[in-house]
Amino acid sequence: MDERVREHAAVLVDWSARIEDGDNVVLSVGPDAHELAVAVAEALGERGANLLATYSSGEITRAYLRAHDGEFDENPAHELALVENADVYLSLGGGRNTSATADVPGETRQAYNSARSELREARMDTRWVSTVHPTRSLAQQANMAYEEYQTFAYDAILRDWESLADEMAQMKALLDDGSEVRLVSNGTDLTMSIDGRTAVNSAASVAYDSHNLPSGEVFTAPYATEGEVTFDVPMTLHGESVRNVRLEFEDGAVVDYDADQGEAVLTEIIETDDGARRLGELGIGMNRGIDRYTDNILFDEKMGDTIHLALGRAYDSNLPDGESGNDSAVHVDMITDVSEDSRLEIDGDVVQRNGRFRWEDGFE
Amino acid sequence: MDERVREHAAVLVDWSARIEDGDNVVLSVGPDAHELAVAVAEALGERGANLLATYSSGEITRAYLRAHDGEFDENPAHELALVENADVYLSLGGGRNTSATADVPGETRQAYNSARSELREARMDTRWVSTVHPTRSLAQQANMAYEEYQTFAYDAILRDWESLADEMAQMKALLDDGSEVRLVSNGTDLTMSIDGRTAVNSAASVAYDSHNLPSGEVFTAPYATEGEVTFDVPMTLHGESVRNVRLEFEDGAVVDYDADQGEAVLTEIIETDDGARRLGELGIGMNRGIDRYTDNILFDEKMGDTIHLALGRAYDSNLPDGESGNDSAVHVDMITDVSEDSRLEIDGDVVQRNGRFRWEDGFE
Question: Between A339 and which of A226, A282, A305, B324 could a Cys-Cys bridge form, CB atoms 3.0 to 4.6 Å apart?
Fold first, then answer.
């Protein structure tokens, strides 16, 4: 086994999920994530955790959803009981075709997701972490050779997380103290309120309320959004290429939108429910191990010199205890490049300009 | 997709597990059973069942068990809650190496199994069915080419189960009404009491208390065994080849035994406990789709023209309510060919001769 696979498993189990003796762990395994699953199972055994592996296959999901009449039972009791009794939920992505569910009708997907809200909430009550095993399918999506992609992925995953967490703490402090954020860039002039919200220092560990590996972003939950934004980083949503999405906000909600490509998918997302028209997340990408776009949101949204916004559900971790934020069946991240002709202001002070932060050399 | 895979899924879902709208189904998927899992997911979707897929990999189990200190938590709550809230548990076997766990220490395996007894019982309280997807690894174990093995497996699985169930009902009636069975063949002259015992018509459906696909046997729980028996069908026990086992019974218990090969394994089994010296099962193989030995007990014990006996534990389904049969930590099936020079008598009447049953053409 490639030693990096074992290192990945160790980071996931120790730094990210903080596994301890006796933890009840659900390990969700993609069809091509087998090798990482073996390394994680070894690490879980060493630490005395209890392992149940589930199988997460786009092809199985597609077959099931296409055959179903669309009247889904809400939160099936067996799956809910599993997740409610789990301490930890580790998701090892890695399929054979990132478009495996491309021909599932949008309304079926929506009905399925809507019927599973308690399941999602229960999963988010665990110490959940999502990661991916670098597969040939992901390499292809990134337009990279397989070994090139492995190097890219492990550069992003096998970081000095402790020191990145210290740097990101500075951005968190600025967002926590601030009331209003303004983002200005090509095709973008957007203001959002963040007053009363708490930023998450997403350092790829549940100890930081951070649930992705790799991570490396600081995010909060904005509201009262006004203005327009252009997302110029390419993306794939529901298996379709989407390019240059433009959103216009009034009173916190999308009032107009278009896209150079994939507008139908965008419509599907925005019309899911009321919350899908509002922002759930503002995130600042700070993982410079991720130096290029690879058409995979897990990596792309953490890329250094980018900022992303999500339509849909807000994370409770950004909200005061007991307060609920924007609610939706969806959470769809979209990314904009801020490396040039760009500035991020908090209450009128520029905190990032052309990709450099105010505490860095080169910021002016 | 090979149409036989879809047919296999339909038999499993409709005939075997009797899936209905709203059933909560756990689908346990082996690493190479993916294609069957896709077909089963499609069938489950059509019927409106709720699907959770688990991943059953010998390599993951091996890594976990070898890394663990052996002090296993009993019946982990998340896995137990899953199974207790499931209506149906479908196991799709199909790995890449039938020896994947060969180097797991025996005591670790035993400790793991002992810690999971409630889990096993909970699974047996569901409408559980075990089947296998024909894989290259199983083809290798059977000494067959892959496509040859597929043909063999689907011949065994895709039967007219309703008509086989009707035929097997005749054998069940004879065993239920009978008091004493005598089996005479080369190297075999054995009498057993079956008075008061109930035979199971194992027709590959939970509706018949039958949980294997393929199945195709009628079995009961004999006692007071006298005489000698030779098992001439090859087998693998505890990973060792065992050939031509001969057992001699007095007063229901083995008093002498030998084997041409693997006698040490036989000794280990017989010396496990008191119950391991007594029979727990008499089974009559009636699936003529299975026409040869493939070193896989799921198929071998159902082979037409064979009879098998098991040393060890009897099944409750053969016993009057509340009565307990032979008890043991083991249940080891051994098979004898009855296609030639052979007869099976119930209370002195010949019911099978040289493989033909009394209700068949060619029986004399």
Answer: A305
Q: Which residue of A has its CA nearest to B30?
A: A55
Instruction: Judge whether B43 is closer than 8 Å to chain A, CB to CB.
Output: yes
Distance from CA of A105 to the nearest CA of B (A): 14
- A contact test, residue of B78, B109, B116, B126 with most A CBs within 10 A: B78
Select from B54, B56, B51 the least CA-distant residue to B40. Answer: B51
Architecture of domain A3-157 in CATH? 3-Layer(aba) Sandwich (3.40)
Q: Regarding predicted confidence, which is higher, A85 or A110?
A: A85
Q: What is the ipTM of this complex?
A: 0.91
Question: Among candidates B95, B116, B94, B102, which has minimal Cα distance to B66?
Answer: B102
β-strands A88-93, A127-132: how paired? parallel
Question: How far apart, in Å, do the first and last CA atoms of chain B sit?
Answer: 46
**Residue among A61, A142, A55 nearest A103 (CA):** A61
- CA of A226 vs chain B CAs: smallest distance (Å): 42
Residue from A296, A283, A278 nearest A237 by CA: A296
Residue B317 carries which side chain, given as an amino acid letter? S
DSSP B220-276: E--EEEEEEEEE-S-EEETTEEEEEEEEEEETTEEEEEEEEE-HHHHHHHHTS-GGG
Nearest CA in chain B to A60: B38
Q: Domain ranges in chain B?
A: 3-157, 161-357
Taking the CA of residue B73 and the nearest CA in chain A, the distance in Å comes to 7
CB B325 within 8 A of CB B282: no
pLDDT means over runs of 10, chain B (364 residues): 97 98 98 98 98 98 97 98 98 93 90 92 96 97 96 98 97 97 97 97 96 97 98 88 96 97 94 95 97 93 96 94 90 95 97 96 86
Q: Which whole-number Å values give the CA distances from A248 to A189, A231, A235, A337, in the listed order? A: 10, 12, 19, 18
d(CA B306, CA B295): 14
DSSP, residue by residue, A308-334 = EEEEEPPPGGGS-TT------S-EEEE
Interface touch A45/B60, C-beta < 8 Å:
no
In this complex, the residue of A31, A60, A77 whose CB is nearest that of residue B24 is A77
With a CB cutoff of 8 Å and minimum separation 6, the contacts of B324 are B316
- Contact in structure between B293 and B303 (CB atoms under 8 Å): yes
Q: How far apart are CA B364 and CA B356, in angstroms?
A: 9
B345 in Cβ contact with B358 (< 8 Å): no
Task: Output the CA–CA distances (angstroms, integers) from residue B158 to B7, B8, B161, B260, B291, in the order listed.
Answer: 7, 7, 8, 36, 14
Q: Tell me the two tokens of residue B286.
A: 């009636």
Strand, helix or coil at A86?
coil
pLDDT at A221: 97
Query: Quick check: A80 contacting B, CB < 8 Å?
Result: yes
Longest dimension (CA), chain B: 61
- Beta carbons within 10 angstroms of residue A71's beta carbon: 9
The pTM of this model reads 0.90
* B70 interfacial to chain A (CB closer than 8 Å): no
Q: Is the minimum CB–CB distance between A1 and chain B shorter than 8 Å?
A: no
Q: Alpha helices, DSSP H only, in A18-116?
A: 34-47, 58-67, 77-84, 106-114
Q: Does the beta-carbon distance from B60 to A53 stay under 8 Å?
A: yes
Do A41 and B56 make contact, defined as CB atoms within 8 angstroms?
Answer: no
> Given an 8 Å threshold on Cβ–Cβ distance, is B53 in contact with A45?
no
List pLDDT tens digits, range A31-42: 999 999 999 999
pLDDT at B349: 96
Bridge partners, residue A300, by sequence: none
